[in-house]
Structure to design on (466 residues):
């Protein structure tokens, strides 16, 4: 029996879909059998980020309404044998399915997959309730901005109300320089307010935008800082104790020499 | 009279006693009667019968009824008393209590704590606190870390100055001074709001 993890945030645009795609891919990279579920009905994106848009035949609503079998709707990833996507419908809206239907779908997937990653839509309405219905636990994504942290706090409260405990936090799009100059919320400040376990910190990385536009999750690039961060997050989900990576940018040789002489 | 005999016997006994009393006592000016029930507990109906029995005498008036017994509902009813709650009040959540409220935990930005009496927060108050929500102007807000988005006492609303100033680490309380919100160190509480159980040392 697998585990269903919902990726949620409340606020839009903080990187839920990118995080879902990268965590799903990173878990597959570690040899796990993974299915990603896009519950953002009407505004589906996960298939685009994964580069699987042109392979979709059926979707989540078709499965819920029993117009097709589950196996017909699952889209196999082009890179990994054991990575699948259950896409959202693009023509309907959030009310097209009920939380009970999504729970039944997720429960069915949990029998065949080790991890079911559920990409949640923004907001706290029907779409949110659908996405969390089948989840065993939740990962909340936020960015170091007051508005995003406020919404993450609201979401954590709602998750607790839904009976989901042990929620963990990913802080996305962190810029070390701005944090040092106090122009951005501190990681400690965010953790203090939200009072949940920190699962990982993902640096702001142009590579993420670039790869998403190419339909290739950033974790496929072995060298980008965001890729390393997502790989570490996947290992932490598997239970490994991986220390948080340093946010310091790599300094050039000259800077290191300067620092050695106390000039840096 | 005994407080463990049957109620009907009690009423009969009482009527007998009142019937044998000197006429003079019962003819004079109105006499206030205080009923002490001791360990007896009466239903509303029984109480009405007892009152009727006494007030049947023309100059007796029941002024008060006292009992040592507290009904279960009132024992567990925290209305008007101090209620302790643990946990975090997160954005979008509201915690309200009719009485004094003690929260062990934080109030996050976007969260609200409100009480008809005082509010005590052992934790960071970063959201909104509304003490004396039903109009009590002497209510106070106490917090170990006072960083509210907004403070309200009775009908007065106040927000902290735009620039936060020092990040104080000592416990503070907010109160109304002639209708103006003020914040002071907790050590000055007794000077500002004397009364209650004040510890004076031994």
């Amino acid at each position: 029996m697998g585990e269903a993890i919902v990726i949620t945030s409340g606020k839009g645009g903080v990187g839920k879909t990118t995080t879902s795609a990268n965590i799903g891919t990173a878990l597959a990279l570690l040899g796990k059998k993974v299915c990603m579920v896009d519950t953002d009905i009407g505004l589906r994106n996960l298939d685009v980020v994964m580069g699987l848009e042109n392979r979709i035949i059926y979707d989540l609503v078709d499965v819920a309404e029993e117009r097709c079998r589950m196996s017909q709707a699952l889209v196999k990833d082009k890179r990994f044998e054991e990575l699948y996507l259950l896409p959202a419908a693009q023509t309907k809206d959030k009310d097209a399915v009920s939380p009970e239907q999504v729970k039944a779908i997720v429960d069915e997937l949990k029998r065949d997959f080790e991890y079911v990653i559920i990409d949640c839509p923004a907001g706290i309405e029907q779409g949110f309730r659908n996405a969390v219905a089948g989840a065993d636990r939740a990962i909340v994504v936020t960015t170091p901005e007051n508005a995003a942290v406020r919404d993450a706090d609201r979401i954590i409260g709602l998750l607790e109300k839904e009976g989901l405990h042990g929620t963990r936090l990913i802080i996305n799009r962190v810029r070390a320089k701005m944090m040092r100059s106090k122009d951005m919320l501190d990681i400690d400040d965010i953790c203090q307010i939200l009072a949940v376990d920190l699962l990982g910190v993902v640096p702001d990385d142009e590579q993420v935008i670039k790869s998403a536009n190419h339909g290739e999750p950033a974790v496929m690039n072995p060298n980008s800082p965001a890729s390393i961060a997502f790989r570490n997050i996947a290992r932490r989900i598997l239970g490994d104790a991986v220390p948080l990576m340093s946010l310091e940018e790599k300094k050039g040789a000259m800077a290191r020499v300067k620092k050695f002489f106390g000039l840096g | 009279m005994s407080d463990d005999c049957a109620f009907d016997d009690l009423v009969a006994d009482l009527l007998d006693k009142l019937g044998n009393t000197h006429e003079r006592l019962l003819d004079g000016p109105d006499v206030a009667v205080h009923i002490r029930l001791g360990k007896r507990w009466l239903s509303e109906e029984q109480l009405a019968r007892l009152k009727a029995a006494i007030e049947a005498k023309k100059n007796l008036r029941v002024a008060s009824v006292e009992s040592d017994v507290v009904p279960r509902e009132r024992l567990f009813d925290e209305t008007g008393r101090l209620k302790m709650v643990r946990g975090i009040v997160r954005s979008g959540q509201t915690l309200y209590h009719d009485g004094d409220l003690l929260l062990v935990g934080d109030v996050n930005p976007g969260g609200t704590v409100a009480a008809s009496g005082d509010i005590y927060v052992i934790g960071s108050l970063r959201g909104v606190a509304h003490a004396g929500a039903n109009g009590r102007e002497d209510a106070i807000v106490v917090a170990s870390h006072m960083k509210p988005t907004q403070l309200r006492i009775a009908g007065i609303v106040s927000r902290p100055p735009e620039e936060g100033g020092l990040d104080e680490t000592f416990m503070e309380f907010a109160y109304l001074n002639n209708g103006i919100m003020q914040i002071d160190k907790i050590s000055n509480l007794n000077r500002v709001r004397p009364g209650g159980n004040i510890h004076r040392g031994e």
